[in-house]
Design a protein that fits this description.
metal-binding, 6-stranded mixed sheet, 3-stranded antiparallel sheet, manganese ion binding, alpha+beta, Creatine Amidinohydrolase, globular, Creatine Amidinohydrolase, Chain A, domain 1
């Protein structure tokens, strides 16, 4: 009996050793979790203590020596390095605002006087607890001052251009719990402002620096964000009655300053794009059926922080697969990127990192298994054709409504060529039928906010037609704008069912062909694009052609060596 137990134990130990060795090989190859943590962090079945099938397949593949579709690629390193941010960027932004504000005052025959006063963000706790949420600066304040700490105020003398920072006077206990209490001189040097004083001295300091005979004038930030329909919060200080206040002048002027990007701003947006593009490619390489959507989200978040120094993302990651890819803003608390990926799924991953406030917004769509099916190619290429048509047409003076309609028309033409829709394209456009497949707008301004403000300048009204009413801007393009180009094609029951019942739109749909795409989900391709003097520049660097995506997912380095591939194809064709 004792001998039998010993033999069983030996067999178990040998089997365990083989599995351990296999996982160790995988860990070493992919720089993953230590074996001691695998059981804690890998997903498990609810009814057993065994690893889920994905992990079992990985082990079996390693034991057999076969490559298998479950074997992950190594975690790629990055050649990128987080850049030093020049505070001249924010000094330039302040100077830009002062010049624009002076021009506005002069044009309306008003005296050039007063102070711009902004209040930075406050640290927030989670509901009634003492858990401090990760702080991110209020965007207008970040634009002008670049301050990353909470509790600051900032002011600019309109007449002289002189800049002030007002820092909170911290209690002595701060040094015990949160680190060294920095003196005002530290922030003066860090943020390149003219004067740094404590917040409790704000009223006295502004009065001392005012040459006005009466109350000093404060230009406060108050205006509507046309994306959120929320209003910006004007600075709130004690003894506001000691100042005259202007709540209407500053917001439209400062918002317009943010629309046109400087070279230093563009460098940061480009860096955020480079890091995010790299992370998207890492996700492409590591995706496998059997994984959870949130595992791909975690790969992206790890890469942009580990290699890019990006602590914040521009928005909540959308990691949608299968039918979820038709949910435009998937990834929220009620749909938290938690579906198991299946063979044959399309993936739609909309993720972007932020570096020193400036962000990126990139969407890649691709098959989970790395190989496009015929139906997937049809929809993907329809969206890619729209994406490329817009990029070829963008230049200063072009109206964004026209670009949206171009994308819609290109998608409809592609769908008609495949027999998915039928009828006259122009009539479809008149009926706004394109919104059935692309209900969102083509793109939005990008900068310190994902949906950067300024899309609807004063006097511009939002359209009311389907599709067009979702546009975040209808402006003509100008040089140095940064805008996303993100056409999509989705099969959304909430839109398709009414369209099939409507006697006007039903005649455009080939119901037999539509059945093939009932559970398809959707495709979106999104790039961040700079408007140049004579066209545009795509700041995003991800594989877009179907063959590029398949090559990268199979392990080819990115960017691809197109010349080498062409020569190889030529040799094989010969």
């Amino acid at each position: 009996m004792l001998q039998r137990k010993a033999t069983r134990g030996k067999v178990k130990r040998l089997r365990g050793a083989r599995i351990y060795a296999a996982i160790f090989k995988i860990k070493k190859a992919q720089n993953g979790l230590p074996f001691s943590l695998q059981s804690k962090y890998l997903p498990r079945n609810k009814t057993s203590n065994r690893l889920k099938p994905f992990s079992q397949r990985v082990v079996r593949a390693a034991l057999s020596g076969k490559s298998g579709d479950a074997k992950p690629f190594p975690m790629a390193a990055s050649a990128l390095s987080p850049p030093e941010v020049p505070m001249e960027l924010h000094a330039h932004n302040r100077d830009k605002l002062v010049r624009a504000l002076r021009d506005n005052l002069a044009a309306s025959s008003r005296p050039i006087r007063g102070f711009v006063l902004l209040q930075g963000g406050e640290e927030q706790t989670r509901y009634c607890t003492d858990h401090a949420e990760l702080f991110r600066q209020e965007s207008y304040f970040a634009y002008l001052f670049g301050v990353r700490e909470p509790g600051f105020f900032g002011a600019i003398d309109v007449a002289s251009g002189k800049s002030f920072l007002f820092v909170p006077r911290l209690p002595a206990d701060y040094a015990v719990w949160l680190g060294e209490i920095k003196p005002p001189s530290f922030f003066k040097e860090r943020y390149m402002v003219d004067l740094v004083i404590y917040v409790d001295e704000l009223v006295a300091v502004l009065h001392d620096h005012s040459d006005e005979p009466g109350k000093p004038l404060l230009f406060l930030l108050y205006g509507l964000n046309t994306d959120s329909n929320n209003f910006s919060k004007p600075a709130a200080i004690e003894e506001m009655n000691k100042f005259d206040t202007d709540l209407s002048t500053l917001h439209p002027i400062l918002t317009e300053c943010r629309v046109i990007k400087s070279k230093m701003e563009l460098d940061l947006i480009q860096y955020a794009n480079d890091v995010s593009s790299e992370a998207h490619i890492e996700v492409m390489r590591r995706i496998r059926s059997g994984m959870k959507e949130y595992q791909l989200e975690s790969i992206f978040l790890h890469h942009v922080y580990m290699y890019g120094g990006c602590r914040h993302c521009s928005y909540t990651c959308i990691c949608a697969t299968g039918e979820n890819s038709a949910v435009l803003h998937y990834g929220h608390a009620a749909a938290p990127n938690d579906r198991i990926l299946e063979e044959g799924d399309m993936a739609l991953f909309d993720m972007g990192a932020e570096y020193h406030f400036y962000g990126s917004d990139i969407t890649c769509s691709f098959p989970v298994n790395g190989k496009f099916t015929k139906d997937q190619i049809v929809i993907y290429n329809a969206v890619l054709a729209a994406h490329n048509a817009v990029l070829q047409s963008m230049r200063p003076g072009v109206c964004w409504i026209d670009m949206h309609k171009l994308a819609e028309k290109t998608i409809l033409e592609s769908l008609k060529n495949e027999g998915i829709v039928i009828g006259d394209i122009d009539k479809m456009m008149e009926r706004r039928f394109g919104a059935v497949f692309m209900p969102h707008g083509l793109g939005h301004f990008l900068g310190i906010d994902t949906h950067d403000p300024g899309g609807y300048a004063q006097g511009l009204e939002r359209p009311k037609e389907p599709g067009l009413k979702a546009l975040r801007t209808i402006r003509e393009l100008k040089e140095s704008m940064v805008i996303t180009v993100e056409p999509g094609c989705y099969f959304i029951d909430a839109l398709l069912v009414p369209a099939m019942k409507d006697e006007v739109t039903a005649k455009f749909l080939n119901k037999k062909e539509m059945e093939k795409y009932k559970k398809f989900g959707g495709v979106r391709i999104e790039s961040d694009v700079l408007v140049t003097a004579d066209g545009c520049k795509n700041l995003t660097n991800c594989p877009r052609e179907t063959w590029e995506i398949e090559a990268v997912m199979a392990g080819a380095p990115w960017p691809l060596d197109h010349a080498r591939i062409k020569s190889q194809n030529g040799s094989s064709n010969a």
